[in-house]
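Sat 14:20. Reprocessing the chain from the morning session after the first attempt stalled halfway. Input below, unchanged.
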Amino acid sequence: MGTAEYRSSWIDDDIVALREMATKFFEAELLPNQERFAEQKHVDRSFWNAAGKLGLLCASIPEEYGGGGGTHAHDFAIFDAQYRLGDTSFGNMVHSGIVAHYILAYGSEDQKQRWLPKMVTGELVGAIAMSEPGAGSDLKMLRTNARRDGEEYVIDGAKTFISNGKHADLVIVAAKTDPAAGAKGVSLIVVETADSHGYRVGRVLDKIGMKGQDTAELFFDGVRVPARNLLGDEGAGFGYLMKQLAHERLGIGVCAAAATEAAVALTVQYTKDRSAFGASLFEMQNTRFQLAECATLARVSRVFVDNCIERHLRGELDPTTASMAKAYTTEIQGQVVDKCLQFFGGYGYMAEYQIARMYADARVQRIYGGSNEVMKELIARSL
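Finished this time. Tokens:
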């Protein structure tokens, strides 16, 4: 059975149709613009509206809030379609897979009614601001603070590496509302960026990979936010982050598995088309054995991710297993893409080749969402 013939158990005909629709949209609207998006360091703002019009935003948000009414599987199918095409520029996983679900899980009914329908259409683009210049994977070291002043919070601080940062209309900010309380002093506050005095987008960052993805610095200088924009309970933010990070890490695993499979398929085709020493590269035993190993690693990643998705859909995915999935699949992605690039020779090092972009894009997967070293620490604590 070939890799392309394997069908994940959580994918039914409805999800197949959704993935095919997403694939056609990305082929038509993303791939022809990849170079331009990379140069400007973000997709066009209108792209979000076009994706929303097709139902590719917030597919797992209930219909009562304008969403697609599906499950996490519907979101994962859309993310899978994008990464299978080798694109990383569209920050939908953060918008639909993370921000929307924080609001759904912890938001008041008023907050859900105010924000989710506009996230579904793309009128509002969501971001979540955790990382800081001095605090990456260690969320307890946050320095951004939010001081209560009557019916408002006043936010001061800086955030960096924020996906969707340039275009964000809603930013969930992790801030200390009680600096003396450590992790118990962290709260989540939603900043509506339009006409928000003291809020500033800094540089859209120049990365070695994921060139077209909007990743920015954010600055908060006395930003006043209505107290009603507190997400959930004051001081409960760290617990919310820990709970939702399992879902985020599985999402990274989904994208890693799709990218790994895509790299193998791309390389198999290239080696069959490329001749050297009187035969195709694929006919050489070393090529066949290396690609057999890569295909096996890709399949193991896929099966592990599928198992995690099945458990997640039943509400049974534990944080330790999510950490395992994130760490394992991203390590395999890096290994497989590296081996695949070798078969392209010098062309594999040329930026215009997809395998080269996949190589650069893969590297950060082991860093964001909690570095893989942190994942190993979390796994070790469960042993």
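The chain has a mean pLDDT of 95.
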